[in-house]
Specification:
The protein has 378 residues and is α+β, with helices and mostly antiparallel strands. Helices cover 49% and strands 15% of the residues. The two termini are 34 Å apart.
C-alpha cells in the first residue's frame, strides 16, 4: 500500500482493477484496430464511480481527491491500457470546470461528465504550435451574444468521441497571452464543426486522437469558461502541474508493470540450458531497472502527497513529468531487450508498452520544455 493510500482507496483500486479486467482488457485489440474505444465504456465507468472521482459530490463527482484519480491511472498502467482517455476527461478537463466554471456551468456539465453522458476533450495544440500555447491562432470573435470560432486543432485526445470540448482560443489576439480564453464547445449538431481523421500513431492505437476543425462555429457567450475573457492562459498554467503529475503517475505504473512482466518472463524462458534469469546479465539488468523504478515510485508518491496538501509546485511537477517519462522509455526498452526477438512481436505486452511510452515525453509539454521550467525556478 502506498504511503498516501488507505483502505477506502484500496477498495477503489479493487473496483478499478475488476472493471479493467472485465470490460477493457478483453476489448483492447479490437479497439486498437478501430482506433477508438466503444462509447459505452464511458457510461460503464461512470456508473461505478470511476469518472470525476476527485470532483465534489454536489457536482456529481465522487467527492474524493487526487489520490482517487491516481488509483485509477495506476491500475490502467498495470492493465497496459492507454486507450481509455479517463485522465484527460476526469483528471484534467473536469478540474477546469470545478476550479473556474460559473456555478451554472459546474452544475450543468460536471454531473454529465461524471456519469459518462458527456466525454470531454481539451483542445490546446494546433498545427505548427506544439507546446507554445501563446502562439495559438484559433480565434473566438464576439458577435452579439455568440462567439464565432475559426481555427484548427490537432493531436486531441478523446477528439473522435468527445461531446464536449474545452477550446483554447484567442478572444483578443492583440493581447498575446492575456488574450487567450477557454471556450466550452458542445459538439452535437454543431454547424461548422468537423472532426478530421483519427490519427495513425506509432503507439496508443486505441486512443481516439483526432484533428478538429472550426469554420464559423457559433457558441453562446455564456460558454466562456468562468465568464471573463483573457483568463485562459492563467487557467492553463495553474492546471498544467496536475496534468504533468498524471503523466508521471502513469509512467511509474508502466515501469512497474514492465519490470514485473520481464522478471516473470526471464524466469520461465530458458537459454543455454537454464532460465534467462540465472544469467548474471539478466539479473543485473533487472536489478538496475527495479532500483530506478523504486526511486521513481518514492518520488511520485511524494508528489502525490504534496499535491493533495496543495504544496506541489510547477517546477517539481515538471521534474516528475520529464524524469519519470524518460525513465519509463529507458526501462521498458531495457526490459524489451531481455525478451529477445519476442519483445519485438506485437502480441507481447512489452512491445505495446514500448510503442505506447514514446509519446509520454512529448505531450503535456515536451520534456525539453520541462527542463526549461525547472531551470527558471532555480
Amino acid at each position: 500500500m502506498h504511503p498516501w493510500s488507505n483502505d477506502e482507496l484500496e477498495m477503489l483500486r479493487d473496483t478499478a482493477r475488476r472493471f479493467l479486467a472485465e470490460h477493457v482488457t478483453p476489448n483492447e485489440k479490437r479497439w486498437d484496430a478501430q482506433q477508438h474505444v466503444d462509447r459505452a465504456i464511458w457510461n460503464r465507468a461512470g456508473d461505478i464511480g470511476l469518472l470525476c472521482a476527485s470532483i465534489p459530490s454536489e457536482y456529481g463527482g465522487a467527492g474524493g481527491d487526487f489520490r482517487h484519480e491516481a488509483v485509477l491511472y495506476e491500475e490502467q498502467a498495470a492493465a497496459n491500457n492507454v486507450s481509455c482517455g479517463f485522465q484527460v476527461h476526469s483528471g484534467i478537463c473536469a478540474h477546469y470546470f470545478a476550479k473556474y466554471g460559473t456555478e451554472q456551468q459546474k452544475l450543468y456539465y460536471l454531473p454529465k461528465m461524471a456519469s459518462g453522458e458527456l466525454v470531454c476533450a481539451i483542445a490546446m495544440t494546433e498545427p505548427g504550435t506544439g507546446s507554445d500555447l501563446q502562439a495559438v491562432k484559433t480565434r473566438a470573435q464576439r458577435d452579439g451574444d455568440h462567439y464565432v470560432i475559426n481555427g484548427a486543432k490537432t493531436f486531441i485526445t478523446n477528439g473522435g468521441l468527445c461531446d464536449l470540448i474545452l477550446l483554447v482560443a484567442k478572444t483578443d489576439p492583440a493581447q498575446g497571452a492575456k488574450g487567450i480564453s477557454l471556450i466550452i464547445v458542445e459538439t452535437a449538431d454543431l454547424a461548422g464543426f468537423k472532426r478530421g481523421r483519427l490519427l495513425e500513431k506509432i503507439g496508443q492505437h486505441g486512443q481516439d486522437t483526432a484533428e478538429l476543425f472550426f469554420d464559423d462555429v457559433r457558441v453562446p457567450v455564456d460558454n466562456l469558461l468562468g465568464g471573463h475573457e483573457g483568463q485562459g492562459f492563467v487557467q492553463l498554467m495553474q492546471q498544467l502541474p496536475q496534468e504533468r503529475l498524471i503523466i508521471g503517475v502513469s509512467a511509474v505504473g508502466a515501469m512497474e508493470k514492465a519490470v514485473e512482466l520481464t522478471a516473470q518472463y526471464t524466469k520461465q524462458r530458458h537459454a543455454f540450458g537454464k532460465p534467462l534469469f540465472d544469467l548474471q546479465n539478466t539479473r543485473f539488468t533487472l536489478a538496475e531497472c527495479k532500483t530506478e523504478t523504486h526511486i521513481a515510485r518514492v518520488f511520485i508518491d511524494d508528489c502525490i502527497a504534496k499535491h493533495v496538501r496543495g504544496e506541489l509546485d510547477n517546477a517539481t511537477a515538471s521534474m516528475a513529468k520529464w524524469w519519470c517519462t524518460q525513465k519509463q522509455c529507458e526501462i521498458i526498452d531495457r526490459c524489451l531487450q531481455l525478451f529477445g526477438g519476442y519483445g519485438y512481436m506485437a502480441e507481447y505486452p512489452i512491445a505495446k508498452m514500448y510503442a505506447d511510452a514514446r509519446v509520454q515525453k512529448i505531450y503535456g509539454g515536451a520534456n525539453e520544455l520541462m527542463k526549461e521550467l525547472i531551470a527558471r525556478a532555480m
